[in-house]
Amino acid sequence: MSKKRDRRSAASSTRRDNRIEQSTRRDDSASDRKLVTIFILFFIVAPVISVIVYRFRFSSPSYPKESYVYQRGLVTTDANYQDVLTENSKVSENTSQRSYTYPVLGYITTWNSRGYEMAKRFNSKFTHLSPVWYDLKSQQASLVLEGRHNADKRWISELRMAGKALILPRVVLEALPVELLTKKKQRNKAINLIVTECKEMGYDGIVLESWSRWSAYGILHDPSMRNLALQFIKQLGQALHSVVSEKNHKQQLQLVYVIGPPSSQNLQQHDFGPKDLETLSEAVDGFSLMTYDFSNPQNPGPNAPLKWIQFILHLLLGSSGNSAQSLTGKILLGINYYGNDFSLSRDSGGGTILGRDYLALLEKHRPELQWDKNSGEHFFFYTDDNDIKHAVFYPSLKSISLRLEEARSWGCGISIWEIGQGLDYFFDLL
Ligand SMILES: *[C@@H]1O[C@H](CO)[C@@H](O)[C@H](O)[C@H]1NC(C)=O
């Protein structure tokens, strides 16, 4: 924003100065010439220098903007539905080129097969791919790891051929937490199940989701249980790190851990906070931070307001002192590739929409896309066949690019939920 303003004012003062120069040229007096020099210095040289300094300071660490979507001028607040409809499937010719140099994790779900295709097509854009396949469950007095039937071996070998992205299936810890965390035998069993599955299937590690479950069970309010929970994650990380992957150049298996945003302005006992981040920094290779789902049908609005994202990053990283550098690189800022279609009637409703739903809505309603400056998101309104007004929030090239820039300014990676839900040209930003 301010960059644009800078350039505009520099250009207009240059124009103004040209006029002044012409009108004074006829005059020969020395003092006038001095005045002209001062004018030139003041109105041309200074703005030019300031623009150069500005570009050097603020743009050069930014990413190369030669990808298709930038060349076509599509990364703009001033977007329109026609451009989205005609351009959404077009990307740069070379899909191997990465623009985002920090870690990029992409989730793939079994219920949306498009993600499997995208993972192959844009493999080089990712450092980590996480198919959502496994649940670790209690079964009588023991534990089982369910989900092998989801694992698609042919797809895995195709991914290995397509690029270097690590494959870390997600495991959700559904097992009864008190049993699991207080009994040493159960903890060891859980870890053994996970490590064995990685070895047998040739994975590069796992993404673990458990904090939200533990929070739902209410065990994180108890300080000793909370501590056991952290110890369990540590133990799992150490166990994974002690195994080297055969498939992947003898690298250690990795653990990525899913964390949610704090539940309120002030950190609660059950929230995952900066201290937890430090406690786990050795054992965990990445923290997949779920910075989306800010709004819901009861409170329609943007999915991931930029200021909220900034607040969360400050909360987690702002006060972590010397170790912050190594920690920020492990944060994978969550970016949603899905949107929401909220109905604004009294009995509010609506919910998630995917790329294809969004395109269908644009085609049918030809809406005016609006830019919400506060949240940094595009949205539009439409009225359905029952005369009910809807508000649709779906990511745009501009909204995603702002979040990438935010993550980059911290030195964070990103995680995308989920790669089958977006439009093809979103991948051109990565
Ligand atoms: C595509 O980009 C990659 C990474 O920059 C490069 O190594 C490769 O040679 C490029 N391929 C083509 C066909 O230009």
Briefly summarize what is shown.
The chain is 42% helix and 19% strand. The chain has helices at 2-25, 30-58, 68-71, 81-87, 114-121, 153-162, 177-182, 184-201, 211-217, 223-241, 274-279, 306-317, 324-328, 355-365, 397-410, and strands at 104-109, 128-139, 142-146, 166-167, 170-173, 205-209, 254-259, 286-289, 331-336, 339-343, 349-353, 370-372, 377-383, 389-393, 413-417.
* Distance separating the two termini: 22 Å
The CATH superfamily name of the largest domain is Glycosidases
Give the low-confidence spans.
1-27, 53-62
General shape: globular
Integer-rounded radius of gyration: 26 Å
CATH topology of the largest domain: TIM Barrel
Largest sheet: 8 strands, parallel, barrel
Give the count of structural domains: 2
Biggest sheet, strands in spatial order?
1-2-5-6-7-8-9-15
Rounded mean pLDDT is 88
- Residue share in helix: 40-55%
| Name of the level-1 CATH class of the largest domain | Alpha Beta
Structural class: alpha/beta
What's the CATH architecture of the largest domain?
Alpha-Beta Barrel
Oligomeric form: single chain
Q: Which ligands, by name, code or SMILES, are bound?
A: 2-acetamido-2-deoxy-beta-D-glucopyranose
